[in-house]
Amino acid sequence: MGTTVSIWGGNGIMDLAEVKERLAMKIAQAGREVDESVPGNIAYDEAKVSIQDYRYALDLVGEIDYPSKPVVPQFVADWITIAALNCDYEPIRMAEWIADNVDEDTDYHFDWLENLDNQRLLLTALISNYEVEKETEYQVKVKGIAPDKKNVLRYHKNFGLFGLAGVTDVDMFKTKFTKEWLKDNWSEYEAYNNAGLLEFEEVEDE
Predict the structure, then answer these.
(1) Number of H helices, E strands in the chain
(2) Angle 116-126/74-86 helices, nearest 10 degrees?
(3) Interhelix angle 74-86/91-101, nearest 10 degrees
(4) CA angle 139, 200, 172 (to 5 degrees)
(5) Residue 67: is the preceding peptide bond cis (ω within 30°)?
(6) C-alpha gyration radius of the chain
(7) Strand partners, 164
(8) pLDDT score of 16
(9) Backbone dihedral region of 160: left (phi > 0), alpha (psi from -120 to 50 degrees) or beta?
(10) Rounded Cα gap, residues 95 and 204, in angstroms
(11) Which of 126, 102, 124 has its CA nearest to residue 113?
């Protein structure tokens, strides 16, 4: 389990009925925009799409097992944090922001968002407290490059450089990594990992 996070302050819970009411209002507003627009123009098409999106979100909210506290990966917590800052902590706008800004060409977590169960999980997190999943940390050895006792991956915190050495516990070096952190920070991670050159040894919590 991980750390409990609230984006709302106070008790961190937003009333589910209020979310449904706001979605219904959004659907009605988009319906009025359709009625007032000329079929085929941009405003008309966008309003039609909005109606579909809001109805889809309303259906998902109706299926949420509320008020269970969801546990989300760190990258989802990052999405929520950024969306909250861009959308004044309004859950419906935040969901729209995430849908618009998590792109399959720029975010390798896009597949996570394509999953229906994960969409429900995200919506639950947007309207309640949520917990951030604690990721497993590993000591990583690179095979076939250095002598066995000098093949431990380490990251120099000051210079932002990766290197190999023996086991070390010096503060300036990071030697425990999550796989997500390596994906985000080590440009050669995928190449080494796909080639089977990385050996992961799970590090127990201290």
Answers:
(1) 8, 8
(2) 50
(3) 120
(4) 20
(5) yes
(6) 22
(7) 153
(8) 64
(9) left
(10) 35
(11) 102
Tokens 């609230």: give the residue.
6
Residue 204 is given by DSSP the state P
Q: DSSP letter at 175?
A: -
What are the tokens at 47?
A: 């309003």
pLDDT in tens, 74-95: 889 989 999 988 988 888 888 8
- Checking if the pLDDT of 13 tops 80, the result is no
Alpha helices, H only, the chain? 16-36, 42-62, 74-86, 91-101, 110-114, 116-126, 179-185, 189-194
**Max intra-chain CA distance, the chain:** 72
pLDDT at 59 over 80: no
Q: Residue 65: what pLDDT?
A: 56
Mean pLDDT computed over 20-25? 77
What span, in angstroms and rounded, lies between the C-alpha atoms of 172 and 170? Answer: 6
* Domain segments of the chain as ranges: 3-132, 138-202
Q: Are 33 and 164 in contact (CB under 8 A)?
A: no
How large is the average pLDDT for residues 121-129?
A: 84
- Statement: the pTM of the whole predicted model exceeds 0.70: no
Do 71 and 130 meet the contact criterion of CB atoms below 8 Å apart? yes
> What's the mean pLDDT in 127-141?
86
